[in-house]
Backbone:
């Protein structure tokens, strides 16, 4: 099982038939779902659980990524529901993430804690996999899925939404969208040498960008059928041959 999809808010399953598998890691037990598509076995992991029962600040990110590593996963696509602070990215748009700003506070951020793993430092020259990004663009064009643009993901601790002043600060730092889950997930995947790319679905305007408050109904409407379209593109890419010869994801860690 070399390929995996991590589903964020609104993406709790695939249409394909799935079998359940439990993986026991040093950080806890993780339940994943496996789809057999042609000759490929693709792992699906719902980040918040099948019923969205786990809030973003309590997701066991290390257990999730360790489970994928134990299953032999090398390529990971993920979805993330985000708010937009960029006037060019409206609810319903799809944004390809190419960098991040980390404003999390209380999460285990690394496997390199000197206890479970040796001390190491991961290079963030390319936080996300350029190869998976390009493959997604190609498959999206074939499927008629429009990507509005690329952007910087601001990750906050949650579970509360951000204040207008916080959003103004993030804008001044170059942020485009804000979410609560991509860090440390992206970093942990890179520590294990995985190719990882997150696709953001804009569900709402950030606080202060527009006058209307954030409402769950608007978020659900914005997700719409984008989640299914994105999943189809993931599977289209995953049925093709992938390698790590066109990126540096597999050798991004410096050990001392």
Residues:
């Amino acid at each position: 099982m070399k390929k995996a999809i991590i589903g964020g808010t609104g993406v709790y399953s695939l249409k394909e038939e799935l079998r359940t598998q439990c993986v026991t890691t040093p950080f806890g037990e993780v339940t994943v779902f496996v789809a057999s598509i042609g000759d490929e076995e693709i792992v699906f992991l719902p980040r918040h659980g099948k019923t969205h029962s786990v809030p973003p600040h309590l997701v066991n990110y290390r257990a999730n990524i360790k489970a994928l590593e134990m299953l032999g996963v090398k390529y990971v696509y993920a979805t993330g529901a985000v708010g937009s602070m960029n006037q060019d990215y409206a609810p319903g748009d799809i944004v390809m993430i190419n960098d991040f700003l980390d404003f999390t506070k209380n999460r285990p951020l690394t496997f390199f804690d000197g206890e479970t793993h040796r001390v190491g430092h991961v290079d963030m020259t390319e936080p996300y996999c350029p190869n998976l990004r390009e493959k997604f663009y190609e498959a999206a064009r074939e499927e008629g899925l429009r990507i509005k643009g690329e952007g910087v993901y601001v990750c906050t601790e949650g579970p509360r939404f951000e204040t207008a002043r916080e959003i103004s600060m993030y804008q001044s730092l170059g942020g485009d969208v804000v979410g609560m889950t991509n860090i440390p997930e992206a970093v942990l995947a890179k520590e294990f040498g995985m190719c990882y790319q997150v696709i953001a679905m804009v569900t709402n305007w950030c606080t202060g960008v527009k006058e209307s408050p954030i409402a769950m109904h608007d978020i659900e409407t914005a997700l719409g059928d984008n989640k299914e379209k994105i999943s189809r593109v993931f599977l289209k890419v995953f049925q093709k041959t992938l390698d790590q010869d066109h990126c540096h994801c597999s050798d991004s860690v410096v050990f001392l």
